[in-house]
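Form 12-C: Joint structure prediction
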Amino acid sequence: MLIVTCKIKLHSEKTHNKPSRQPGACVIWFLKKSPSQTERMHGRLKIKSTAQQEEEKRKEREKKLKIYVTARDACFSKRKEGILDDEALQLTQQLLSANPDFATFWNYRREILMHLETVKDEDEMQKIYEAELSFLESCLKVNPKSYGSWHHRGWVSVRLPRPDWARELSLCDRCLSLDDRNFHCWDYRRMVVKMSGVPVDQELGFTDRLIGSNFSNYSSWHYRSTLLPLLHPESPEPPSPCRKPPQTSPPPSPQTHSHRVCEEQLLKEYELVQNAFFTDPNDQSAWFYYRWLLGRAEREEMISCVYASRDEERVAVAFSRPVNAQTVGLLLVLDGQPQRVEWRSVHPRFKHSPVWICDLPPGTISDITNEHNLTVHWTEKHTHRDCALYTGRTESYCRDSATDQELFRSELSVEKTSVLQSELQSCNQLQELEPRNKWCLLTIILLMRALDPLGYEKETLAHFQTLKEVDPMRSAYYSDLCSKFMIENTILKMEYAEVRVFSISDKNLTTLCHLDQLLLVTHINLSSNHLQRLPPQFAMLQCLEVLEADNNSIENLEGLYRLPRLEEVSLKNNKISALADLQPLASCPKLKRLDLRGNPVTQTANIESELAELLPSVTDLLL
Amino acid sequence: MAAEDLPSEFDVVILGTGLAESVVAAACSRVGQRVLHLDRRSYYAANWASFTFNGLLTWIEQQHEESPSEEVQDWSSLLEEGEELIYLSKPDSASITNLQVFCFISPETQVSSVFSEEDEEDEAQSHDPPNTTEEETGADDENAAKETSETEPADSNDKETKEEPEEAADGGEDGQSQAAHTQGEEPEGDQPCLHATQSQSEPTRKQISYAQLVKEGRRFNIDLVSKLMYSRGSLVNLLIKSNVSRYAEFKNVTRILTYRHGNVEQVPCSRADVFASRQLSVVEKRKLMRFLTSCVEETEEQQAYNGRPYLEFLRDQQLGDNLQHFLLHSIAMVTEDTATEVGLASTRHFLRCLGHYGNTPFLFPVYGLGEIPQCFCRMCAVFGGVYCLRHSVHCLLVNKDTNRCKAVIDSRGQRISCSHFVVEDSYVATERKKVATPTRSLSRAVLITDGSVLPGDSDQQVSLVTVPPVAAGSLAVRMVELCPSTMTCMPGTYLVHLTCQSVGSAYEDLFPVVTRMFHTPESCNQEKRPSVLWCLYFNMVDGAGVEVQGHDLPSNVYVCSGPDGGLGHEHAIKQAESIFQKILPEEDFCPPAPNPEDIIYDGENTVTSPGDKEEKEKKEEKEKEQQKEQELQTEE
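Section 2 - Result
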């Protein structure tokens, strides 16, 4: 225990940096020179005035500077001449001990040392490098956060013929005990641990110690999160029954599994971190670690939906994450025949997109009496999805039903419900004690979402309201997050109702997201929210026929781009101000009805004729 | 003592080297006053002193001795016109009473504790352990020796080899201390019981003998007072401000413990402690942290409780029994009926001192509290103060008209004139003292034990233990347990100080607590508790009631009290400051001592003519250049 063994010297602010004097020596010094009683006429010692002291200090500094500059210039010229001798080593040492952040001299030093390696034997080099390490130690005392010194130490340690890693480790520990957030030291320590193969459990003990002395430390918590999966890996059984059967899914990728921790250890970690956030709920490092513990599931990589339309002779494919279809090896097979098609994203702005479209050669599926079998292969991920287009049907799609399990619990979805439930209980307990703690509120919201997004909708909204009050600086972030959750809930409701109508009016939406999930939606109602734009992602709504977005603050319609079936658009009481803003609509061939009442653009001169020119297909225009 | 006479003129003469006197001495000397600092004793720090074990035994003897009645000499020949004499009281030991010593260990080296009663007695006579058990015990002994050798290799080897010859000598000293047992029961009779029970709990524990305590006596620094330094209390602030801190080193008190439901528990008081505590539920942790943060500032809610008990306030905060106990007894360190505003002030002081030097708000000086007055004396000496021990003042010469002390007559009959006289209260005759309140006293116990009351990860813990009153009307006892690394006790032992306000004698007041918390022959079923090897009980006068002035004394005579019963040093420092301000109302109290290089001496003129300076510098530069040249030559 460090605290016990070290003795404390009390210092006032002023004397803190001065070298400590031996008390005994000091007294003797005084007694030797102290004038005797009778000599002290005025009864007190004369002390130099501050001005005198300043003057002396200034002189001292000037002298130092002169020496420094001379040495520096000498060093530069030596390096220029390519001299790699001991004197240069001496000079750089002097300079660097005064200023350990002079990268050039560290480089010069390395050049010299590498040269010495070629002329000296191993024992000599061991000695030289050991001397280098103790020199570095003195540099680190001057500036414990010097990039140059730490980097050079790493370089030397690796080149040392017989490295003493235990010594390095204890140096790091000493350094971290002085400043447990010195990230240079953390970095170096990681290197040392890796090189010397310190057992993982020992390192976990080390984080225990650091967290015990001060838990407001990201580095320790983060280090813990990298050690735990190694020490207590999750048991190999499938984590949740609702996942797809194994034959269809690819072998588990390392990212999705290796970072999980076995349940027994997890429960211990929950206890530890709860102790931290109950002790100090305003310390964010513990909360972040908690979020990590609760898990962050990665969605399986797959083709989530294939849609085919006879009219447009077009196939749209949705992926579980944004991809670049041109490079991932996407293959369309129609009735057993691979097709040469051109994949394009829904909007020219996207190189990566979760939704990709291709046009089939004219006439391939247009005959309504034919039945077709489509298969889209994602060759890179060894996955595919079939879609049958039956006779008499103008369109067809195939997808997984978007159950709540699969789609939106990705924030905290891995844990078992019972664990999440008990975690929610303790967070609620804390929230009772600290009703205005933002970290607690946010975590409660996330836990509620993971447990039952629809059931907790009311509580979630109330908590968001409180969050915006207690943390007004981030109210926009909370609004966006809330919008996202509202959209997720609406999607779930739509899925349960098995309809293709998406209605989310009057929910204070500030942003739109999950639009890839709305590929099949034909009617959308976004009225009475706080939307400012229809983003390019909006173009993923490939089946959209009717758009209602009245009473928002929309000024940008970028996302109404090449929507092949869009017929009716209602944008009453928004903020569209220029004709140019309506330009994207020109790419929607079937647009017939457009309601722009209550928009500034209606005040423009010649608006009707301009619009008629821009949107010739529109027959029903309300201004 | 030097035979030469002291100078006959000083600004301030100070009699007694307790903490307050020493601070006054340092402060006066620092601002240029000529100070003479005397003490009739042979050691510094009066009742604030620390002793080695052997030194303490001597001190105990002195307390038992009848103070030799000195003849009152007539000093009237030294009187000048218009002067009168005030005699100081004879050196008395009235401040220490009811001294009792108990020894619970055998006088000689106990090799093992696995003996039966008979063996024990045998051994006491023969010194040599019976052959039958030698093998077994030999192994134990070796282990023990190894343990100690880690810390003090040289010494333990010494011990092993030199044991035999030393014992004889130690026996003699032991006999002396036995004589010091005034009312103590015969320790020998109870001993077998002690060893028997102990061997069950920890058969490998090496028994420390009295001879060893004496032999290792120099490792002990046993304080007569038991205090801690609040890390932002007035003493620490003064040490820092005056630079006196450079003369001492300190250790953190590493934990605060409390005695509750028959167990010793750790009190979580810092953020890290609260986080790590295993006794508190998470909700309690939150409540405690919230309470501690909220009480830093005064609120209207708190004011509403003014005059009402602190306990009531705590109860109304819905904290629960655990936290109430911690907050009342260990953090505020007040009693159940203390008023809320007092309790809160004390809590705040505790909190203000947290986090400066570690997990608790307290520091303890390495080598004991007796160091502190000596540090101030050193400071006084550095600035020219003159020191004499075993040197007292017999009487004061007072100007009848002005009622001011003009001079003193020292124990050698020298007349020394002074403008101010500061004196420890025990030198002042009782009839001259103004006693406002009935003199209270403190009950003290000093124990040497063989283990910590709460063994933890580290055996080098410095603990403050608060023992709340067991029943209504009984006493709150404060206990400080010091480990060997504080340089106050020998390796393998702990030094425990107990303090409380007296009701009866120290033994009557503290014996019940000692029996409950430690393993002594009187205590039963306490095998797991640390054993008391040796202990001392005494009462000391509580200095808290003594006023600086207002006694029947000249106006320039100031009285310093002995140690008070408080945990911190606030009382003594406040007293010293007020005395200093009365002596020198215009001067700064202990301004920072200058660095030696900033002091100008006669003949060494740093502000001399510019010519001199330049020459000097030129010389220096030349020397440096020469040096450089030499260096370069050698390198080539």
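Section 3 - Comments
Chain A touches chain B through 55 residues (CB under 8 Å). The radius of gyration of chain A is 35 Å.
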